[in-house]
Amino acid sequence: xxxxxxxxxxxxxxxxxxxxxxxxxxxxxxxxxxxxxxxxxxxxxxxxxxxxxxxxxxxxxxxxxxxxxxxxxxxxxxxxxxxxxxxxxxxxxxxxxxxxxxxxxxxxxxxxxxxxxxx
Length: 119
Prior knowledge:
The chain is mainly α. It has helices at residues 10-26, 34-55, 60-86, 93-117.
């Protein structure tokens, strides 16, 4: 079997890279903000996981359902990034801004992919 089709999707690749960056950022969280870090990590890893899980089915309708879950997680990630920046939980703003930009790109790609699957 060749590699699963989701690994070829630019949206999955970008979401996966974001999740890897989030894992690195977790080390920068002060102990008192570990619960924020855990929720942030859960949301950001959910994006690529749902893209992968949805692509494993054989019905486009099911794929769209998982893409929508991934999209909601991406919006949740945006919320967490704003909180982390505004509360100055992590002060490495350039890394956070890069991650924010990349996450917004994931949102755009997911919306486009969902719309293309619904036609």
